Amino acid sequence: MPHSAMLTVLDHLPERFLDTPARELHRLLSGPTLIHLPGRRTPPLFISVLLHGNEDTGVVALQSVLRAYGKRPLPRALSILVGNVAAAREGLRRLDDQPDYNRVWPGSTVHTASPEYAAMREVFQPDGGARRLSPASTFTTTPASIRTTAWSVD
Ligand SMILES: [Zn+2]
After folding, report:
1. Residue 23: per-residue pLDDT
2. How far, in Å, from the CA of 54 to the mean position of ligand 1?
3. What is the pLDDT of residues 29-61, one digit of tens each?
4. Cα(132) to centroid of ligand 1, in Å?
5. Domain assignments of the chain as residue spans, ordered by start
6. Residues 6+ apart with CB under 8 A from 85
7. Ligand 1 centre from 56 Cα, in Å?
8. Please, is 25 exposed, middle or buried when counting C-beta atoms within 10 Å of its C-beta (0-12, 13-18, 19+)?
9. N or C: which end of the chain has fewer CB within 10 A?
10. CA 69 to centroid of ligand 1, rounded, Å
11. Quick check: 63 and 35 in contact, CB under 8 A?
12. Distance between terminal CA atoms of the chain?
């Protein structure tokens, strides 16, 4: 897929997500993607992975945990942001024409005109991108719960 900085919102894991290495995720995802998965407790836990394309540990851990659950329901809903898919393809922190994905979140004072900044702002909209989900979705994203867990270091 050609890479995009626009946020895609999904209410399911893309086919083969669990066994696709970070470098190959570009085959499944066109760019930063927010994936809402239902769970027994509905307030979602926000998880971000691959903000830097050369750091795939989060993806590997996430895939491992989700594989372990298999078809069983998750104990808690998840809102998963898969970040820099395009840089992951190259094994790089970011591409030359991209901002650092750790510097495009609300509150940043740099890259505020970038499409990546606009994408991450969408994650924080009151409906967390839920408006783009299918009507069958029964969960909602609580921005307050995202806000408390979204920040990472590095
Ligand atoms: Zn990093």
Report:
1. 98
2. 8
3. 999 999 999 999 998 999 999 999 999 999 999
4. 28
5. 8-149
6. 3, 25, 26, 29, 30, 31, 32, 33, 50, 53
7. 9
8. buried
9. C
10. 27
11. no
12. 28
